[in-house]
Amino acid sequence: MSSHAWFPEYFNALLKRLGINLIMLSVTRILFYSLNSSAFPAWQATDFLAGICMDCIAIGIWFIPFYGLSLLPNPYRNSKLYQHFLFALFHITNTIMLMLNLLDIEYFKYTSKRSTADLFTIMGTGDDLSQLIGAFFIDFWWLIALLIILFIGSHMAYRRTLPKKKTPFRLGRELLFFIVGCSLLFVMGRGGIGLRPADTLTAAQFTRIENTGLVLNTPLTIIKTLGKPALKEVDYFSRKDSSKIYNPIQRSSTQQKIGENVNIVVIILESFGNEWIGKKTGGPYTPFLDSLIDQSLYFSNAFANGKKSIEAVPAIFAGIPSLLDEPYITSNYGTNTITALPKLLAQEGYSSAFFHGATNGSMKFDEFSSLAGFEKYIGRTEYNNDEHNDETWGILDEYFMPWTAATISTELTEPFIAGLFTLSSHHPYFIPEKHRAQLPDGETELAKSIAYTDMSLRLFFERAQEQPWYQNTIFVLCADHTPAGHDPRFNQRTTMYQIPIIFFDPQHRIGPEVNETIFSQVDIAPTLLDLIGSNQSFYSFGNSLFEKEEKYAVNYLEGTYHLFRGNYMTNFTQGVTKNMYNYSLDPYMVNDSLSALSKEQDRNDQLIKGIIQRYNHDLIHNKMTTK
Question: Could you tell me which CATH class the domain 263-548 is placed in?
């Protein structure tokens, strides 16, 4: 006996329609993998089966209005108006879900994770969305074409589910199918009948941690993070023991002081991951930075503390790594009281300014720089010459960077701290026509834009050398994050945070030296406080280079904390350590060393738990100060 004899036709039609969405989500996952395959070298066929399970959960949530109305007992179900309404509701829901999945085909290359609800917050900062929308349509037209094709396919399949005959209205039967059908689909959306509903962390139970992005789908990660508290209190230790295990309150020292009233310039290089640095790969894109490395204290084993530009600034200037699902700046904790480097230096008579050539308000850098204690924010508005703009983000690096060097002399008094965030090596990678033939080509558009910013960096230093403050200045250069990698070696969790960090002193009071110590963005401010001879208490999740304790770096991605300590990367998720890999010898994470390193696991467990407990507690309760 066929299912049609047991189930009313409208119920069969509903299952077919939800099946259409499931097939389309599977198609987008195949596309997602095909265009991001280098990020998943250890994938298995079971990852796609697990992905279907996660898609079913997303369907059970997103389609609640659709299946609720499809099964709702009512005598008007067969009317054209009601069927047209269901038709529209299906396509709106289906199209949004497909659009989100297609968006991450490209965005994943930059963030290495499925997008969450913070995507809308980031897009809404300043005028970034309005400025980028045109470039998006031009560069990623093929994603829009794919969406149209999938929409047409969904439409054609939906039409085949239209009932061929009217189902007579029987209240009792329809009420039964409404209760049973909605209950089963709701349970599917919960991920089962367990105590807690499935969420984004559930994917880690089905696959290797580094493959969670393949198993998840973007509609699920977004709806599961909407309105969700960014952090939760954890109590791995008592309050007393917690402070002994990990304490971010520190005090700088005068023992490493290199001079009086030393100026500081921190240059944040957009997307300058190790993949593009000549000293790391032998590539031709960073000749000036390579020459500067030869004269500097160069950390060859350095890490970013996030995957986005908006996550770099709090890490570098306030010692706040990105250990939550959304950027600190746009989170509920973004207005917390903090003891950032500019605020600390103001107490010692330092003037300060943050320079960024983008449209004022971009990524809320103007707001955060003020909160961090920078006295001035100088951006596209202050530059006041839009003939030099890149038609998308703001002022081109070749103009804004040397202008910054000259403007420091007029806007700041010594001693000072200045932050400069570069711009041009960001999508859409615009290069002025006059430079395109001279700059080296690469396999991606980013290559030439990296070379362009390196050229602009040389222009900055040429102008800076003419300034009276140059000789008594420490220059810190580091990348904000790694970009979308072309080489699969730089797409793994072991390598996707590795960046250059250098300290350059024209008087060579520090360096030149290649230092292989683990060093990350949050370690920059504590090290600078020691170098200028400050003697202050401060709050930071970083440590000075001159501290005797073993160095480490910590990151967070898709519910997993990554601790780099010694030669190993420890993956910690859902309260337990899952893996340990030798990141220098095993970048593709083939050999899990966890079972052979029980002592190291215990040490790393304690450190990670201590950091998480203090981080979550202090951000939630606004306790990120020394008081």
Answer: alpha beta
